[in-house]
Amino acid sequence: MVWKTISKKLDENEYRLTPQREVILQVMIDNRGKHLSADEVYIEARGKSSNIGIATVYRTLEKLASIDVLYKTIFEGGKYRYELSLGESHQHHHIICLQCGHISEVEEDLLHNLEIHLEKQGYKILDHELKFYGYCPQCNPKN
Amino acid sequence: MVWKTISKKLDENEYRLTPQREVILQVMIDNRGKHLSADEVYIEARGKSSNIGIATVYRTLEKLASIDVLYKTIFEGGKYRYELSLGESHQHHHIICLQCGHISEVEEDLLHNLEIHLEKQGYKILDHELKFYGYCPQCNPKN
DNA sequence: ATGTAATTGATAATGATTATCAAAATCAGG
DNA sequence: CCTGATTTTGATAATCATTATCAATTACAT
Counting beta carbons within 10 angstroms of the beta carbon of residue A31, is it exposed (0 to 12), middle (13 to 18) or buried (19 or more)? Predict the structure, then answer.
């Protein structure tokens, strides 16, 4: 199901699925919903196939992001993170826990109205990204 | 007016206003509303006082951000950017033009409802950050 | 004045990412 | 299947932003 959608995108972009790329993709699928940095992907990929190079990881993540198989973003902390992009357009709403660092997602897409508002002002909005900073339910002192 | 508020914060935090720090602050005030990277601040600061070191710029920006005189964030592009933080709490709504790179701000604070919603789920939200990507009125092909 | 503490600027060290390049893998046509 | 051309890979060098180090300067409190 997930693989089918992805393969299609790879084909469309004439991007060959080598063993290394397959391992990296599998890592991303296994971690669906998480936001992995390149070195985190590298470590997990090594577990599956011990002789994969860090350069290949960077290259592959970059390429997969450019064809929208992955979504690439950067959080406070200064390194890029990647997550599987699941076809649907607006899903980039993150809640970052300042205590444990856990990053979860908000499903709602409540920004549509605001985008309309901005377009009336002459902007053309293509995408948005929303980040909340605070404590997740586990870390919330009140809970 | 701006200076008064800032001096107060500096005093409260026992942060001395040396000539170098004053120059850096002046650069930030001159560029109110813009989002400068450390090296951009460095270049402008050099124009005003030719023998300021890059290390001092980094140190000062970092410190000023930690006492909320500046707001520090990171955009696609991988480097930190700083802007003057003007007392009011929620103002971190940015519109990034994909054409010219210009970053402007949305004044509205329409996320309050969403925050309430998340708090009902057990989260404790302390801050948020919203970024729109698209074309500004000048670059919008439709205009 | 004078000794102590804070600040500075140059530069080394670090961490993340990108570029380079020779070797290995893969492909397409005979 | 061969074989030459093309793509991909992994190691590593290069780069870029940021942070740490440290001796020299500056400011402070007595």
Answer: middle
- Read off the pLDDT of residues B66-120 as tens digits, 9 standing for 90 and up: 999 999 988 878 899 999 986 554 456 777 676 666 666 665 555 666 676 677 7
User: Which domains can be identified in chain A, with CATH numbers?
Assistant: 2-84 (1.10.10.10), 93-134 (3.30.1490.190)
Q: In angstroms, how far is C20 C1' from B17 CA?
A: 47
For residue A32, give the nearest of A5, A55, A59 by alpha carbon.
Answer: A5
Q: What angle do CA A95, A1, A103 make, to 5 degrees?
A: 10
pTM beyond 0.80: the answer is no
Residue in B with minimal Cα distance to A118: B106
CB B20 within 8 A of CB B46: no
The residue lying closest to nucleotide D9, measuring its CA against C1', is A56
Q: Dihedrals φ, ψ of B135, to 5°?
A: -115, 135
How far is residue A91's CA from residue A104's CA, in Å, rounded to a whole number? Answer: 11
Q: Which of residues 25-84 of A touch B (CB under 8 A)?
A: 73-76, 78, 80
Element (DSSP H or E) covering residue B50: none
- Whether residues A126 and B140 touch (CB distance < 8 A) is answered with no
Q: Is B111 an 8 Å CB contact of chain A?
A: yes
- What token pair was written down for A73? 């973003």
Q: Find residue A118's DSSP bridge partners.
A: none
A-B Cβ pairs (cutoff 8 Å, strict): 107
Task: Find out whether B29 and B84 touch, Cβ atoms under 8 Å.
Answer: yes
